[in-house]
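Have a think about this chain, tokens included, and walk me through the fold.
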Amino acid sequence: MTQQLEETIGTGRRKTSVATVRVRPGSGKINVNGRKFEDYFPLELQRSTILAPLEQMGTVSQCDLIVRVKGGGIEGQVIAARLGLSRALVKEDENRRSDFKVLGYLTRDPRKRERKKYGRAGARKRFQFSKR
């Protein structure tokens, strides 16, 4: 007989980063891509940004998190993980939505990298112009 784990899953995105966050009741262990939380996100600012929704509720040590992130850079992954965590927590309890919305934790940042255009050096930069 297998034991059914109660977990909620939330997905967050930022630029090209995608984060899937699984929240289950536990003792506060956090695993990111098979590594320890402190190893994957070395800066305290990054860790506190991700855990901000849990700190807002005051339940940092009551949940285990399993985070899978891919794509983009570290900062994009941090914001994607925070959005995924917020969405998972709202899925658990719909009453948290208004608090998280006011704090901006449920807002998906729509900005993406603009593509390079033909005849240009970059998305907007032009090649050097020579008058003569």
Summary: Strands lie at 8-14, 17-25, 30-32, 35-36, 63-70.
